[in-house]
Design goal:
The chain is built from 8 helices and 9 strands.
C-alpha cells in the first residue's frame, strides 16, 4: 500500500462556513501536515465534522481559501473519508472492498490480492464471505476503513470512528489506525473520547463555537493547555 502525499499540506486560510445566519466555521486558519495523526476535539456542535468535510472537499467554504499541496480545486483522488455511521453495500464484506477497488481503477487481476490484504489489515479476513450488513457495528466500521484504504489515500479522514462502540471494538479500530499511520498515511480524525485522543494523537486541534481555540503537540496540549477553554474541556467541564 503506497501513500503519495501530493495533497499535503492541507492549508485553511481564513475559512468560514455559514448556513444562512448560522456560522459553522469561523475564520479558520490551520495547516495539516504530513506526519502523526491529527485529532480534532471539542464540544458537540463545535465544527469538527464540517472541518473534515471541507478538508475532504465535500463542502465549499462560504469565504476564505483552502489548498491541497499548494493547489486549489484538487479532486479528492488522494483523500478518503469514513463517517460515523458508514453505509454498507448489500453484498459480502469482500465484495464491498472489490467494489471500492473497481471504483479506484484497480485492475481485476489485482483485486483478489488487494481484497485479502485489506481484510487482513483490518482483522476481517475470516469474514470475507459474510454479508456486510450482518457484521457487528465495530466490524462494519473496520470494513469501512478497508474500503477507504482501497484508494491508497495520502490522507484518511474519520468522523468519530469509535463512537458508540464497546471498548474491545474501539481498541480494534485504534489498532488499525495506528497501523495505517505507521504506513505513512496521514490520519485526521475527530473524537469525543479524550482517552482516545491521548492514545492516538500526535497533534491536537481543539474547536469551540466554530473556531480553533488551541492547537499543539498532543502531550503538551494535555499537560500544559494554554487556554481556559482547553483547561475546562480536559477537566471535562461543560463549555457553553
Amino acid at each position: 500500500m503506497s501513500a503519495p502525499a501530493a495533497d499535503l499540506p492541507i492549508a485553511f486560510d481564513n475559512v468560514t462556513v455559514a448556513a444562512g445566519a448560522v456560522t459553522i466555521l469561523d475564520r479558520i486558519t490551520l495547516t495539516l501536515n504530513l506526519g502523526s495523526p491529527t485529532v480534532l476535539i471539542g464540544p458537540n456542535g463545535s465544527g469538527k465534522t464540517t472541518l473534515l468535510r471541507i478538508a475532504m472537499g465535500l463542502t465549499t467554504p462560504s469565504c476564505g481559501r483552502i489548498t491541497w499541496g499548494g493547489r486549489e480545486d484538487v479532486p479528492p483522488i488522494r483523500r478518503a473519508i469514513v463517517f460515523q455511521r458508514p453505509a454498507m453495500l448489500r453484498r459480502s464484506a469482500g465484495a464491498n472492498i472489490r467494489y471500492a477497488l473497481r471504483a479506484a481503477g484497480i485492475a481485476r487481476a489485482e483485486q483478489k490480492i488487494r481484497v485479502g490484504e485489506l481484510l487482513e489489515l483490518v482483522g476481517l479476513e475470516h469474514l470475507s464471505d459474510r454479508p456486510a450488513r450482518r457484521l457487528s457495528g465495530g466490524e462494519q466500521q473496520r470494513l469501512a476503513l478497508a474500503r477507504a484504504l482501497a484508494r491508497d489515500p495520502a490522507v484518511l479522514f474519520l468522523d468519530e470512528p469509535t463512537a458508540n462502540l464497546d471498548p474491545a471494538a474501539a481498541k480494534a479500530i485504534e489498532d488499525v489506525l495506528y497501523a495505517v499511520s505507521q504506513r505513512g498515511i496521514k490520519v485526521v480524525m475527530s473524537t469525543h473520547d479524550l482517552g482516545e485522543a491521548r492514545r492516538l494523537a500526535g497533534e491536537i486541534v481543539m474547536l469551540h463555537r466554530g473556531g480553533v481555540i488551541e492547537t499543539g503537540e498532543a502531550t503538551s496540549f494535555f499537560n500544559t493547555p494554554r487556554t481556559g477553554e482547553a483547561k475546562k474541556f480536559i477537566a471535562r467541564e461543560l463549555l457553553v
